[in-house]
Design brief:
By secondary structure, this protein is of the alpha+beta class. The chain has 17 helices and 12 strands. The protein has helices at about 10-15, 20-30, 45-50, 50-65, 75-80, 115-120, 150-160, 160-180, 190-200, 205-215, 225-235, 275, 280, 285-300, 315, 320-330, 350-355; strands at about 10, 30-35, 40, 90-95, 100-105, 130, 140, 145, 240-250, 250-260, 265-270, 305-310. The strands form 4 sheets. The chain has a 4-stranded mixed beta sheet. Strands 1-3-2 form a 3-stranded antiparallel beta sheet. Strand 10 (about 250-260) and strand 11 form a beta hairpin. Helix 5 (about 75-80) runs antiparallel to helix 7 (about 150-160), helix 7 (about 150-160) crosses helix 10 and helix 8 packs across helix 11. The radius of gyration is 23 Å and the shape is globular. The two termini are about 25 Å apart.
Amino acid sequence: MEIRPGLIDSAAVLRTQGTTDAIHREFRAGRLVRIRRGFYVRTADWLSARPSERFAWTTAAVARSVKGAVLCGETAALANGLPTLRTPGCVELATTLPGRSGVRRSPLMVLGDDPAARQAREKRSYPLRYCLKPPVETVARGEFRCTSPVQTALDMMVGGKFAEALVVADGLARMLHRQGMLQADANLLALPQIVAGISSHQHSSARRRAERVAALASPLAESVGESYSRAAFEFLGFEQPVLQHAFRDADGFIGRADCWWPRNRVVGEFDGKAKYVEAAVRGAATAEEALYREKLREDRIRALGLGFVRWGWADVEDPERLRRKLLAAGLRPRTRDQFADPDLEGSVSRTSLGA
């Protein structure tokens, strides 16, 4: 988790400068946002920051002010370098004390009544949530202590929403593959600690969900959007595609497709915005060149006599719209006998997808 510069720690200022009078003046004037007691960010910086940056500031403030803080859940996923479906709604800490579990209201405070102060108060703040857990292995990640990547993924698989859990699980699979600990064609059930962690859970419904997520998790899912799409395919009843399949024609290599359904002879691509607008993703090409190259690649694949379908984030957010696109491309949902998990059949909803 990268902490953007700008978090003001009043205790550190007191140690180096001997006084925090300037901080208090700026706060009373509305030029500082107080995230929690002793931690501030300039109001202008809070307003210009992305949600993920505001969340990281809040997490750092919690970790520095709560003795023995151990991050868990999606907060730990981010600290471990794993992806999450969205910026988490709260900072999660593990606790072994039943009386401590639950959500604490965000202490964020902005004084003043000028437009900037009012706008800062309207920006989402992140409350603290204590999650009751047995003692588990923890790891250090910079200034944070958190549950390990494997434990974090296990926690998400048994307790998180299906889509949220699959995003984290795919991220863990990619991480382990890069470390040489998981084959490209393997899933998380190849790991004894994952199998043991799932089987030890007391609730059968949670075990079934976790087993399905672990079985789907793949190092070949390359983005959050692809993972989110695969969760949607599961809920909509479509079979899971082959990931990153290479296509060739008479002129040679065409490219790798996000999704390939060989039984239906349909190719699918998740069209994330980053593919066209983020320089780090599109390389040296301009946005226009990236779009043109995608069009040429699609034309060559269609020329092989294959169906082709593109969808974006908004389509996955609206499962029925995604269903219509997949049906129009020639895909057909599985029959009841083909369903891998009857509990998932017909359970399409934004809530179940983690929306």
